[in-house]
Amino acid sequence: MIFPIYELAEARQSILRRRSWAETTYPPALLQGIDRIFAEPLTPEQAVSRILSDVRQRGDAAALEWSQRIDGAKSTTLRVPAEGCRAALDRVQPDLRDALKQAAARIAGFHRRQPAHSWMHVDEAEGTMGQIVRPLASVGVYVPGGTAPLPSSLLMSAIIARVAGVERVIACTPPDRITGRIPDVILAAAAITEVDEVYALGGAQAIAAMAFGTDAVRAVDKIVGPGGLFVTLAKRQVFGTVGIDGLPGPTETVVIADEHADPGWVAADLLAQAEHDVLASAILLTPSRALAQAVEVEITRRLETLSRAEIVAVSLESRGGAVITPDLDSAVAATNDYAPEHLCLAVSEPWALVSKIRNAGGIFVGDHSFEVLGDYIAGPSHIMPTEGTARFASPLNVEDFVKRISLIGLSPEASKTLSPIAARIAKAEGLDAHAASARERILP
């Protein structure tokens, strides 16, 4: 069955079960590819470590060599001239150019509403306390390429960095395997977002270049953006040298639906998610078995019309399906446990469920707020927490591009009042120098 139907208990042990990094198993084809490229059996983590180390030591030459070996890139230069981005913007179809600009305007408008400001509290007796908010100096955006170039991911990250006040924003994206060039649609998005530098570089080698710097690529302070397995593993390994937004894994959507939902619309939303990747998760939670069966029929009927039908079929068979729940509250509880990237509420009274949702990257309320609009133009960034990290993480936002500096300006009187307290705590910790420093302020 292309779209399996599970009971809730069964689903908790299969498609709703989260697995740790340590439990990750890799497809044989992936491991064989690593063996072919490196001429020895390595885990993906080991392969990424090799690439990072090589780029750190040899810079541009290593980055170009790995791009050739892994991606088949033919270019001998990394940077795309600014005029190349402007020319691409002129080349794309006018309706596409207008769509990208409209999406950019909505993304900027949404994120300008997010508070990220300095504050200061002045008290005549105690002095001044506060926080200073400063934008990061430089940010690198990774833009996925591969089977589907994603200009939307560039819009959803670079625009927010600009809103936050980041001075230097660069982008790395792999060139097309056939043409050897970055697709015009991505270069057009770079022109619209006024990215400072664009590099034809993908994979772990791109993350290495942005983290460590090369002759061509000046290092950044933080790397953001989704990517494939090698990109995610590379971000994990360079964290600490640079900041990262998170470790986004394969995309995922949960749809909670009741018996009133339109099975065709639900099927359309699940298919849209499943076509991203064979590892994508598209899951329906519903108390209506009749709806689940109707959705399965719709998916089967529509699948053969899709250009990425093979990817969709693998995704749905292995990581997707319908889950029959006792009621909507049980569906909400299962969702909170799963903590999906996207949650769509296809029920007759969706707002009644919103207050019950604790863990989700984004909530799409009702039939007309479907997830595809969130992918492109609704406004919030589509770069959202995956792999259950919505339990503690947030979608990419202005906060990701600023840092806070604490400001302490105590008065002499407040210092004398607080110093004995600090000295007592320091003594309990066995830190004599700390205690002595505080006692110095107590003495007249």
The separation of the N and C termini measures 82 Å
Classify the beta-strand content into a percent band: 15-25%
Shape: globular
CATH class of the largest domain: Alpha Beta
- Strand order of the main beta sheet, please? 1-12-11-10-13-14
CATH fold assignment of the largest domain: Rossmann fold
> What portion of residues is helical?
40-55%
Global mean pLDDT = 94
Q: What is the number of independent domains?
A: 3
Number of E-type strands: 15
Q: Can you identify the CATH superfamily of the largest domain?
A: Nitrogenase molybdenum iron protein domain
Oligomer: single chain
Could you explain how this protein is built, in words?
It contains 18 helices and 15 strands. The protein has 444 residues and is α/β, with parallel strands linked by helices. It has three domains: 5-20 and 252-392, Nitrogenase molybdenum iron protein domain (Rossmann fold, 3-Layer(aba) Sandwich), CATH 3.40.50.1980; 79-117 and 129-244, Nitrogenase molybdenum iron protein domain (Rossmann fold, 3-Layer(aba) Sandwich); 411-442, no CATH class. The strands form three sheets. A six-stranded parallel sheet has the order 1-12-11-10-13-14, sandwiched between helices. The chain has a six-stranded mixed sheet with strand order 2-7-6-5-8-9, with helices on both faces. The radius of gyration is 25 Å and the shape is globular.
